[in-house]
Amino acid sequence: MPTIDKPKILVVNDDANSLFALTSLLAQWAEQEHYEVMAARSGEEGLRQVLLHDFAVILLDVNMPGMDGFETAEAIHQRARSANIPIIFVTAFLADEIDRLKAYQRGAVDFLFTPVIPQILHAKVSVFVALASKNELLRGQAHKLSQRSTELIATNKRLTREIEERKAAEQQNSAKDEFLAMLGHELRNPLSAISSAAAVIGLPGVSAEGAARARSIILRQSRHLGHIVDDLLDLSRAMSGKIRLNRQPLDLATLTASCVDTFRATGRLSQYTLELDAAPGWIDGDATRIEQIVSNLLDNALKYTAPGGRIGVGLRADAGELVLTVHDSGVGMAAELLPHVFDVFVQGANTLDRAQGGLGVGLALVRRLAELHGGGVGAHSEGAGRGSTFTVRLPAAQQPAAAPPPVAARAAAPGLPRILLIEDNDDGREVMAMMLACHGYPVRHAADGLLGLKAAADFLPELALVDIGLPGVDGYEVARRLRADPRTRAIKLIALTGYGLAEDKRRVLDAGFDLHLVKPVDIDQLLETIQRCARADATQ
Fold this sequence. Notes:
This protein is of the alpha/beta class. 49% of the residues lie in helices and 18% in strands.
């Protein structure tokens, strides 16, 4: 049982003999009744005691000089903390009805008349002491209940939060499982097409037209696989903060129009009506990443819009920002999906044939890239079957001063350079060597770094394509040794690697390479890069 402070009794009387008599009587029962007795010689002193202590009952003399008992009682009950203290008036004469009414109006609960009868004093005081003890016990219990209630509320909040976190984790795990299943589907589709097309080329009765179509399928599906891998890598880099922006002034309207033109040139918009309304506007951004934003929004619109649908792309200025919108007339979104459409591993239900493919991570990448540029994203839909609108807001920048026109480069018509290919993957090396040879380039190839160094010294090519992950000595060391040898110092070096981070490019250039290409390399891109290197040599 908790320890409770002893109830206190205050005796207020200006007469010393009366004060002593009352306190002495009360003191003889103090230990038995478990209370404490205190005394005051005036109303003012009594008030001071009330300010310092809580009392179970106050025995207050009526007739005191200065502040009498009625005034003292009124002052005690005007204070909120002492308003409920019971007061027993002590008087030496029989109070008439007017005095009794006055006393009760001042908060009196009873009267004692002197000479005080000890048994009556004991009985009356015992009641109030017991009541004070019970009240103190109840206050203690109420305090404990309040503490317990606070603890239970905190526990309930914690459990509720844990339940919500568990549900969120379960939903995320479910979304990841669905994503992995979708990833397997998206990877198997192009791989199946590539495998089938390769088998068709090898059939004895295949026509030249059939072989050409099969090769076209292999190229197209290989690009699609590359896009899937790029999306995954870019999202991973963006979420871990490893993307470094190469900022420069960009005309967002021109860049947006260029992306739309690319989609048109590849035939992806041939079955859609696309309207472009882009007002001129400049931002400070990374051109490659902004192109990803626009392309991913267009990809998303195509994915969820049936052929024959409409897509609108708009660009306008608003309060210091450029607002890019992509609207489609596609399947739309349910209200519960809207707050999560830019989350990782979230994808809306798709009722279409999914001919466009994709992993559903494009919008998450759009949001992260917009945030890296200091902007934000939004999505709106009126509901299922009523289309969707996606919005990207980017900080506007001042249009840069016009640059002087570039000096025209001297025209050159270089011959085809000799090329050395150093690649440890046998199939990749053989196919690339065949492609280069088919385009007329003299090609020598090697399967590791040491053989590549020897071939470079014997063949003395103008250009070398070097894989980074080589056995023996890696591509970095190959580049360093070629640069250190006077005979091979002038060879143009192009790194071929599956590593595409900014620090990978920096490491490649630090090792002595001239250019950095990320696998898989599109043959058109590779040929254009080789020709650019040849033209650069011819103009020197």
